[in-house]
Amino acid sequence: MSFADLGLSDDLLRAVTDAGYTEPTPIQRQAIPSVLMGKDLIGIAQTGTGKTAAFVLPMIDVLGEGRTRALMPRSLILEPTRELAAQVAENFEKYGVNHKLSMALLIGGVQMGDQVKALEKGVDVLIATPGRLMDLYGRGKILLTGCSLLVIDEADRMLDMGFIPDIEEICTKLPKVRQTLLFSATMPPPIKKLADRFLTDPKTIEVARPASTNTNITQRIVQVSATAHVKRDVLRRLLQQDEVSTAIIFCNRKTTVRDLNKSLKKHGFRSAEIHGDMDQSARIAELDRFKNGDVNILVASDVAARGIDVKGVSHVFNFDAPWHPDDYVHRIGRTGRGGATGTAYTLVTPEDAENIAEIEKLTGHKIERVPSPVATDDAEDAPAPKRTRGGKREAKKPEPRREDVAAETPAKPKSRRAAPAREEAAPAPAPREEQRSRPVRDERPARDDRRRRRDQDDGPDDGWNGPIPDFLNYTIDA
Ligand code: ADP
Ligand code: MG
Fold first, then answer.
1. 72-122, pLDDT tens digit by residue?
2. Ligand 1 closest atom vs CA 49
3. What percentage of the chain exceeds 70 in pLDDT?
4. What's the whole-number mean pLDDT along residues 441-459?
5. Å from CA of 389 to ligand 2 middle
6. Res. 184: pLDDT tops 50
7. Burial class for 91, CB neighbours closer than 10 Å (0-12, 13-18, 19+)
8. Do 3-206 and 217-381 have matching folds?
9. What pLDDT does 432 receive?
10. Is the CB of residue 271 less than 8 Å from the CB of residue 227?
């Protein structure tokens, strides 16, 4: 089936062809005709399946008819992060080249004056993060009564970030008669509740089981002890032994992101970092270095990396097993995008057993355990392994594989990968005293604490210092 079969306009089809898409993805195939018919829609599909174009394309045609009114955006797209909002805006720019649609982006800090001016004239599409939108609404700068099309994108991320109350409030400000589209990778109960309340007789499209992971992604678990230097050692070996062209490495904490990036650079890897403590311009700059290939490794925290869409990421590494199973799906979804294949490794310490069990329960997929590439894991210093629910644990000390021996000598640099400048001497074991007193459990936040930490990680949604997307400079045809 081609895009032409979906009922899109010729102008739009030309833009799609120019953008290089030849075939709609399954979610696009199913969603686009419904959206064009004006139906409410729930679209559940794993990350990287093309949900953005599933709503952007039909919206361009729907909004192509009708005209703007001062202060009243005609449609509203809610995104959980500034990066995602900017990505959706880029999509509108790309596919909307043959249409004269006006847009505004409300993501905090973007030259508010210009944004308000655009809103005053009236925009066809308003793309916003919930916090910023509520802020501007509260100041009377915007009316939502003319907004007859609402998109709640990445709903499960919204939930994770505590945005659901804001979204509920926004929904009540919109006209009752409207079209509402909700997209999510997973459908946890609070999202279901939101949909029940604010969508009218929606068509539900589910292209894969909720929270199932992309089958193009080979998933592996490597058991390691919780010692930081052991984990870094294992990670370096994995970066060397696999065909890693570009990789995103996820850590649970900002400090780990910083430390790991420092360590990788010290070992001669070309890496950059992105986390919530960095201001927006620094985040964008680091992301650009990664996109341009100046570096091929990006060390990231969850919030900063959420939804990042970079083509051709060959590997995702979970340096820390994620605390929340949904994060696992999102993290590994950074690879295997747009039909490509990818590999995801998760370093798992004995304390992570419970998290992994939750991930496997959510995804319904038993992740393959592979031996650690580091032969001498200082296992005797590690806390006693906990048994997973399944009972069996993997062998603690796997036999070194053939490649491991090769890895002892500096590996030949592979294409696009900087070989480490030198091999690290075998790390001296940390003093036993220190290891014993290490409060492993305490470092992990209690379950209730997790959301707070995740919010903290990104800081308040209070400033966009990044480049202003081109479309904001467009003059609006009256
Ligand atoms: P999601 O929101 O489902 O995680 P995105 O909308 O960000 O996914 O799309 C993931 C990637 O797939 C993007 O790089 C996008 O350009 C690409 N993509 C989307 N639709 C198509 C298509 N029909 N053909 C090829 N690539 C596509
Ligand atoms: Mg998306």
1. 899 999 999 888 998 999 999 999 998 989 999 998 656 667 778 888 888
2. 3
3. 75
4. 40
5. 33
6. yes
7. buried
8. yes
9. 39
10. no
Q: Which strands make up the sheet holding 247-250, listed edge to edge?
A: 271-274, 297-300, 247-250, 315-318, 342-348, 217-223, 368-370
Ligand nearest to the CA of 91: 1
Ligand nearest to the CA of 85: 2
46, 49, 83: residue to mutate for ligand 1 pocket, most atoms within 8 A of CB: 49
Which of 50-54, 105-109, 156-160, 426-430 has the largest mean confidence? 50-54
DSSP state of 215: T
pLDDT at 387 over 50: no
- CATH 3.40.50.300 for domain 217-381, yes or no, is yes
CA distance 227 to 381: 9
* Dist. CA 338 → ligand 1 center (Å): 5
Structure tokens at 111: 């030259």
For domain 3-206, the CATH class is alpha beta
Integer Cα distance of 331 and 153 in angstroms: 17
370 CA to middle of ligand 2, Å?
31
- Mean pLDDT across 292-316: 85
How distant, in Å, are the alpha carbons of 30, 243, 268, 384 from that of 447? 37, 36, 37, 22
What's the mean pLDDT when you consider all of the chain?
A: 78
Q: Is the pTM of this model over 0.90?
A: no
Per domain, the residue ranges of the chain are 3-206, 217-381
Q: What are phi and psi of 400, to 5 degrees?
A: -65, 140
> Which ligand is nearest the CA of 151, by number?
2
Residue nearest to atom 9 of ligand 1 (CA): 50
The per-residue pLDDT for range 218-268, each reduced to its tens digit, is 999 999 988 889 999 999 999 998 789 999 999 999 999 999 999 999 999
Residues 6 or more apart whose CB falls under 8 angstroms from that of 430 comprise: 227, 229, 381
Enumerate residues lining ligand 1, CB below 6 A: 21, 23-25, 28, 45, 47-53, 309, 311, 337-338
How far is it, in rounded angstroms, from Cα 315 to Cα 247?
5
Residue 376 neighbours by CB distance under 10 Å: 13
Strand runs (DSSP E) across 97-246, as ranges?
103-106, 125-128, 149-152, 179-184, 203-206, 217-223
64 Cα: distance to centroid of ligand 1 (angstroms): 22
Q: Please say whether the beta carbons of 314 and 188 come within 8 A.
A: no
